[in-house]
Amino acid sequence: MIVKTLPVEQAVGRKISHDLTLIDPETGFKGARFRRGHVIAEGDVPLLRRMGKSNIPFLELAPDELHEDDAALLLGERMRGAGLELRGPEEGKCTLVAARDGLLLFSDEDIDFINDDPDWLFTTRPNKTPVTKGMAAAAFRIGPLSMERDRVDRARKASPLSVLPWASLPAALVTTGREIYEGTVRDAFLPKLLKKLDVYGAPFLGQTLCPDDRDSILGAASAWIEKGARVIICTGGMSVDADDMTPGAIESMCDDVVFRRIPVIPGANLMLARRGNAFVLGVPASAVFFGRTSLDMVLDRLYAGIPPSGAEVRRWGKGGLCRNCVSCSYPGCAFSARS
């Protein structure tokens, strides 16, 4: 690439080679004030000077080189998977925006592969975390104004990102505890669960109250599976006290236990098991008292169709301690990022 620089007054009548950025602290504007291809006019000179542009660069690219805009576009076309839209370039940067609500999914190794080239700058939201329609999921550009085509082709070997849509899995709640079953204490979890399920658009089939009895819990959960529930949430009785029967009931009715505990706080006593195509969760009391727990992470994965394995959740301890922020920003926080 050859760069020829002209004083701004002598650049009048020439086409700008790349977007020129205006940063105006008074109005809060930051963006491309003059776009690539704009022909500089006499009236532009005062503003260009105010932008700090005393000299304007003009680029001459070699046959094997690509402009920053074209490099970003080519990579963006490759990295745009299902559920994403490509926007840009502006100021050399392209953005992948969620076209639907769901779970962002990509290969950590492939993002690292792109960024192994120090002139590529590829950033994302955390992997396997929820995004909503219209939210930026990734943004990327090259650092210099041009790049050799073979380096762009190398980056394009990475696999695309995608947004997995939420599956409409019917859910049911089995609430355990003699104090709730006999009406001494009101169940406080149901309203919280309904709010969580609303995010996924999941139908709620109903709730069964059970005493601290293994056969009652087993029978209630099995009955909901027969009625079409794909996610059965059993609350209460998940500790190690003599009255805590829920883990044994879940284990005896399911084909396999994915995990019995999870290194995430709050919610360490969360249990996940399978029976056919249904999932049964044993949810500890922390889900009643805390706004976000390990349950939220696992529900995100179940409703996106990529349930975590037992081996995977053993790696969730790093960053798995919630800060209990006064104003909760989940899933826009490190606690949600359990990839």
UniProtKB/TrEMBL annotation:
One Pfam family matching this protein: MoCF_biosynth
SMART domains to which the protein is assigned, alphabetical: MoCF_biosynth
Gene3D superfamilies: MoaB/Mog-like domain
GO cellular component labels: cytosol
GO MF entry, a single one: molybdopterin molybdotransferase activity
A single BP term in Gene Ontology: Mo-molybdopterin cofactor biosynthetic process
Residues covered by the MoaB/Mog domain: 172-304
InterPro entries to which the protein is assigned, alphabetical: MoaB/Mog-like_dom_sf, MoaB/Mog_dom, MoeA-like
Xref: PANTHER family: MOLYBDOPTERIN BIOSYNTHESIS PROTEIN (PTHR10192), MOLYBDOPTERIN MOLYBDENUMTRANSFERASE (PTHR10192:SF28)
Identification of the protein by name: MoaB/Mog domain-containing protein
Record organism: bioreactor metagenome
